[in-house]
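FIELD: query
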Amino acid sequence: MKELKKLLALLGLTLLFISCESPVKFSDYIDKTTSFTLTINQLNQTTGLTNSTQTEIEIKSEKCAKLIEWIEKNNNGWTIAHASYISKISVSQDNFHLRYYPEGSVVLSFVDKEGKGRQYTKEIKVGELDFLTDN
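FIELD: result
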C-alpha cells in the first residue's frame, strides 16, 4: 500500500511538472501581416494615476521584425500564469497580449485554437525587450 501511495504521488508530481512548463508555439497566435499596438504606462507622480500612450508597431518596421523573431525563438521555459499585473510596456494584437516587465519577466496571454484563454510567464534577461521602446 505504501508503494502504491509513493507511486501515485510521484505520478502526480510528474503530471504537475509537465503541465506547468510545456512548449507553446506562440507564433501560431499572431498575425504576421497585421501591426501591433504598443502601450507604455507611466505613473504620474503628481496625481498618482497611470497615464498610457499607445503607438502602432508597423508590420514592415525593424521593431516588428525583432518582436516576431523574439516570439518565434521563445517557445520554451514558460510556466502557466494564474495572475498578471499592469505592466510598464505591453504589446497587443487582437487576442494576443505580451506584457513586458523590464525588471526581467514577460507574460503572454492569448485565446487558443479551442477558444480558451491561456496565460504564461517567463523570466528573461533584464532589458531583453527594451527594443520595444527604442525610437
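FIELD: remark
Helices lie at 2-20, 62-73.
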